[in-house]
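thread: overnight batch results

M.L. [08:02]
morning all. the overnight job finished for the chain we discussed friday. pasting input first so we're all looking at the same thing
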Amino acid sequence: MVLSGLLFYSRSMISMLFLGRLGRLPLAGGTLAIGFANITGYSILSGLATGMEPICSQAFGADRHSPVLRLALRRTVLLLLTASLPIAALWASMHRILLLCGQDPDIAAAARSYILSSLPDLLLQSFIHPIRIYLRAQSITIPLTYCAALALLLHLPINYLLVSVHQLGIQGVALASVFANLNLFVLLVIFIYFFGIHNTTTGGDDGELHRTKDGFTAWKSLLGLAIPSCISVCLEWWWYEIMILLCGLLLDPKSTVASMGILIQTTSLLYIFPSSLSYGVSTRVGNELGANRPDRARRAAAVGLSCGAALGLAALVFAVSVRNAWAAMFTESEGIMKLTAAVLPILGLCELGNCPQTVGCGVLRGCARPRTAANINLVSFYGFGMPVAVGLGFFVGLDFRGLWLGLLAAQAACVAAMLSVVRDTDWKLQTERAQRLASGAVESNALVVKVVVDGSDESNGQEATKTGVFDGDGRPSFLVSVKIDGSTLLT
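M.L. [08:03]
and the structure it wrote out:
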């Protein structure tokens, strides 16, 4: 997962290098377009797709041949395609929006060219995100790395062909990114069908699953996870974009915005490691809960958080060690280098909290608790961190450092809340929730009946569980738990 993340990061760096070779205007327009696309498009699609992660990982843990995985994949693709329609309309209106916001007309025109050429990427991302989660839930990660590596190898010559040979300029850079995702999508589909991965999740009768479960209920289950996941992802993504806007209001906006760009690239690089660990922990926790092994799920969460803390310490050491030389890789401006060197230790402290809290988010995703993660991010970043950043940056006079101290406050609050929630998790309860989610039910709509009957040699003291909801004909079916403990109780 780490290698895959580095490959995707390298791909974005190649695109930025080609933008930089085109000159200041294409670089500014492309950067603005990428930021706009991240805020209004990519963050939303990524967040919505994350909603299928606990469904797939828990279903796979409960039954390695569960048709729930394939159904979740189909529904998520349809959900993302539907969400792409208003996003595409918004992108088409980007030029007018930027002009209304007071952006330079030339930069706005360049950004418009880039984002209009990126429109096909919405279609591709609507398939790529769910496919990656579908494979990751089954612990299939190495082929993802191979496909990403091959797509990266093709990305460089495609950029050269479109930008340098055909002279397509900023549109060529955008189209090269589209072709990179197209290549990745084709490679993933070839892998899935060539190795028969799609045949491993055809156990049971998914047609029967459709007939016995209300279709609205199944969609409600997915949306109930996808929407909070989307909010959680967007809240964190948008924070950094807001920081860039705030930098434009400081005393030396050109230097602070440039330094912020360098620091965001740095934190994006460091984020690859905890985010990869977070994906692994989410999958492992979901698999263990789906397999009815709460102790192993708790152990996986504890090990993951410990590794996250170690990654945070390593990131702090790295940031402090390179603070005087790092900015020289990006710029020759003394002012920008001094600003970056002053803030890099604060960035390292932020990563000390960001790494374990990112893993904590993975634990909550594995438990199908995205709403909790969204609430933590909302309060930590916007209820606590943002006021601190604005206060220190603009009223106390700490300027650029004040904004980053606000981020440090947000990360400290976030990691404290995340660790507290994980510590207080009832893992047996999460296992019961996983059994219901893996069967396609929705907790809020399920009528639960517990039947505890007299001892029987046939049941061997085991617990039998069957899950259901009110179906489309209005006929109730019940989630029944049968426990054998020598007494009879009906609730």
